[in-house]
Write a structure and sequence with these properties.
Layout (H helix, E strand, L loop, with lengths): L15 E3 L1 E3 L2 H7 L10 H4 L2 H6 L1 H10 L2 H19 L11 E3 H14 L8 H4 L8 H16 L6 H12 L11 E3 H15 L6 H10 L2 H10 L5 H15 L12 H7 L7
Antiparallel strand pairs: 1-3, 2-4
C-alpha cells in the first residue's frame, strides 16, 4: 500500500530500490555499484509528512523508551535514509523493486519501533509475550500496534516486513548467505553502526559504513539527536537481559560487543 508524501529534494535517490539485498556485506557492496559516502543535509533527509502520518508510532516508542534509546532509534532512521542516498542497490536485473516512498515508510516504522520491548515499562513487563527475547516481543507489540493504529493505511505485507525486521534486527547482520528485505537490512545494519561506530565489529562492517555513511552527515544527525548515556545504558541493559533470559537472541552477539559499545563516545569520530 503506497502513499505519496511531499518530499524534499531527492537528487541522489532513484525512484525504486532492490526490495531484497544480500545479507553478506561483500555481496551487498558488489551490488551497490555506485556506493560512496555522500553528505546529505538533515533538512534533505527529513520526510516530515511521513513522520507526521505515523506519529502515533513514534509517540508509543517515546513513551516506552528512555531518551537515549529513543534517540538511538531516530538516528537509525536517518542513517538508513543516508545509506539510501549513498548508492543502495537499485534496478538490479531479476530483483523485485520497492518504491522509495514505500521503503521510507517501512524503514521509519521498523527503526522507530525496534526497541520498544527494551524497556521496563509496566506495559512491556506485563505483556503476554514478555517471556520471549525482547526482539520477538517487540515485533509482536509492533504487529499489534500497526494493525490497530493503521487498519486502512498498512497492508499485511507492510506490517509483516516491519515486524520481521524488528524480530531479526539483532541477528540479520550475522547471516552470511541469503537475502533480507531492504528495510530489514537497513534496520539491522544501522543498529550495529549506531552502537559500534565505524570500526564496529568486523572489517566488513567498517567497509560498509565507510562506503555509505558520510561522517559530516553522521555528525549533524548525532548533534541533533545526541548519544547521551547510550554507551553505558545499552551494555548494562544487555547484561540484565542475559541474566533474566540466558537464551535471548542477544546471547549470539560477538563477545566483545559490550566493550565496543562502551568505547564509542561519538559516532562521527569513531
Amino acid at each position: 500500500m503506497t502513499c505519496n508524501f511531499n518530499q524534499p529534494k531527492m537528487s541522489t535517490l532513484p525512484k525504486t530500490f532492490d526490495a531484497f539485498v544480500p545479507c553478506n556485506i561483500p555481496d551487498f557492496l558488489a551490488k551497490a555499484k555506485d556506493a560512496k559516502p555522500r553528505f546529505v543535509p538533515l533538512t534533505e533527509l527529513r520526510h516530515q509528512d511521513l513522520e507526521k502520518a505515523y506519529k502515533p508510532s513514534s509517540d508509543l516508542a517515546e513513551r516506552l523508551e528512555t531518551k537515549p534509546v529513543f534517540n538511538h532509534s531516530l538516528r537509525m532512521y536517518y542513517f538508513s535514509l543516508l545509506i539510501l542516498h549513498s548508492g543502495f542497490p537499485s534496478g538490479t536485473p531479476g530483483i523485485p523493486q520497492i518504491t522509495r516512498e514505500e521503503l521510507f515508510k517501512r524503514v521509519f516504522l521498523a527503526c522507530i519501533l525496534h526497541d520498544v520491548a527494551f524497556s521496563n515499562d509496566d506495559f512491556i513487563l506485563k505483556h503476554p509475550a514478555h517471556g520471549m527475547s525482547f526482539e520477538l516481543q517487540g515485533g509482536i507489540i509492533a504487529y499489534e500496534h500497526l494493525l490497530e493504529t493503521y487498519p486502512s493505511k498498512l497492508d499485511t505485507a507492510e506490517v509483516g516486513d516491519v515486524a520481521q525486521g524488528i524480530m531479526l534486527h539483532s541477528l540479520n547482520y550475522t547471516f552470511t548467505n541469503g537475502v533480507a528485505s531492504a528495510a530489514n537490512f537497513l534496520v539491522s545494519q544501522t543498529a550495529v553502526f549506531d552502537l559500534g561506530g565505524y570500526g564496529s565489529l568486523s572489517p566488513d562492517f567498517a567497509k560498509l559504513f565507510a562506503t555509505t555513511l558520510s561522517r559530516d552527515s553522521v555528525r549533524e544527525i548525532e548533534t541533533l539527536y545526541p548519544r547521551g548515556v547510550l554507551s553505558e545504558e545499552f551494555p548494562d541493559g544487555i547484561e540484565e537481559l542475559l541474566k533474566e533470559k540466558p537464551n535471548c537472541l542477544l546471547c549470539h552477539t560477538p563477545p566483545n560487543a559490550a566493550e565496543v559499545i562502551r568505547s564509542v563516545i561519538n559516532l562521527a569520530d569513531s
